[in-house]
Amino acid sequence: MSLEGLTHRYGKATFTLFLINVAVYIVEAILSGNPFSISIDVLARLGQWNYAVLSYGWWWQLVTAMFVHVGILHIGFNMYFLLMMGRQLEGIIGPKRLVMVYLVSGLAGNLLTLFLLPANSVSAGASGALFGIVGTLIIITGVVGGNMQGALINAFVLFLINSIMPSVNVYAHLGGLLVGMAIGYYYGKRIKRHLMVQMYGYW
């Protein structure tokens, strides 16, 4: 399939975010000299090293870390979910807002990581941003479908399942999920009002 075809299939913003993540991983692999596992030195420079953020003022790491991955399986799983979930959300709220959800949720997860994990912690991954995307999708569905209780349960179960997995940054997941849920509530309400106007001419 051509690049244009892939962009059409997965959405312009979703596929662009995918390409950025893959490009960053290629750089990581080259710097590490290993395409399967990234060295801690590279992760400390490109990911989020809390000590560097707080002591050296490397605040840019709060953004770059959401495009950095620790190994081939890490990026593989994350990119699969980005393509699957990102294109769904992009189809609902559009490409610019999809990018906004990714960045704001990822930043929230990284800020929570900064303040709740030890200073010597090094973290990386798109998981916080992805939890934001999924949280937004879940809550939009709950608001529009009139089943917020079910949506909240689904969000809690998703977080619980992922939290018990080894080597998982729970704080990044939590921060991303909560921000995504808040964004989902806002857009869910807007979408529901729009549907009411279309159906009944009022809201």
Short description:
This protein is an all-alpha fold and 203 residues long. The chain is built from ten helices and two strands; from the N terminus they run H-H-H-E-H-H-H-H-E-H-H-H. Keywords: Membrane, Transmembrane, Transmembrane helix.
Which terms summarize this structure?
mainly alpha, single chain, 203 residues, 2 strands, 10 helices, two-stranded antiparallel sheet, Rhomboid-like fold
Give the CA-based shape.
Answer: globular
Poorly predicted regions are none
Q: What is the average of the pLDDT values?
A: 93
Topology order in helix (H) and strand (E) letters: HHHEHHHHEHHH
CATH H level: which superfamily? Rhomboid-like
What secondary-structure arrangement, pairings included, does this model have?
Elements: H1 3-10, H2 12-32, H3 40-46, E1 48-49, H4 50-56, H5 61-64, H6 72-93, H7 95-116, E2 122-123, H8 127-145, H9 148-163, H10 170-200
Antiparallel strand pairs: 1-2
Helix pairs in contact: 1-2, 2-6, 2-7, 6-7, 6-8, 7-8, 7-10, 8-9, 8-10, 9-10
Write up what this structure looks like.
A two-stranded antiparallel sheet has the order 1-2. Helix 6 packs parallel to helix 8. It has 10 helices and 2 strands. Helix content is 77%, strand content 2%. It has 203 residues and is mainly α. The chain has a single domain (3-200), classed as Rhomboid-like (Rhomboid-like fold, Up-down Bundle). The protein has helices at 3-10, 12-32, 40-46, 50-56, 61-64, 72-93, 95-116, 127-145, 148-163, 170-200; strands spanning 48-49, 122-123. The longest helix is centred in the C-terminal third of the chain and has 31 residues, at 170-200.
